[in-house]
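Intended use. Records like the one below are meant for learning the mapping from a protein sequence to its folded structure. Do not use them to infer anything beyond what is encoded.
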Amino acid sequence: MLKSIYSKISRLTLRDYLFFAEAWILLLTAKAIIYFLPMKILAKIIGGYMDKPSDMTKQDDENKIAEIKLAVQRADKYSFWQNKCFNKSVALRMMLNMRNIKNTLYLGVSKEDKDKLNAHAWIKIDDEIIIGGNHSKNYSVVAWFGS
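Structure written out for the chain above:
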């Protein structure tokens, strides 16, 4: 078991560790601002409220996007708090925005029963859902944040 963990760790590059650290810190930051700040202020931090959804990503950015997505997934796995789709989407959006990669964060709702309302968040670049895409088709979009 220790040998398999060591082999996984030894394959990671310094860049992987830096992406992981950045994603972990941004997941914690996203959790804090979602918990403590009202949505009106949060919308300003996220930016691009109800702006036109972004498109036209460069082909060069595809590797960066994959690395960032993997870093957020790893950071989520190794965080000691629970991250919901909104936390992950906000952290991923921050990382993408820092690298000037156009993206759109969507917020959606669905009604499960007559008394239960569910919410979901996901990030899209062009027509591809980067994170949170498992159930996004079941949700009606109520807001989006373009860049």
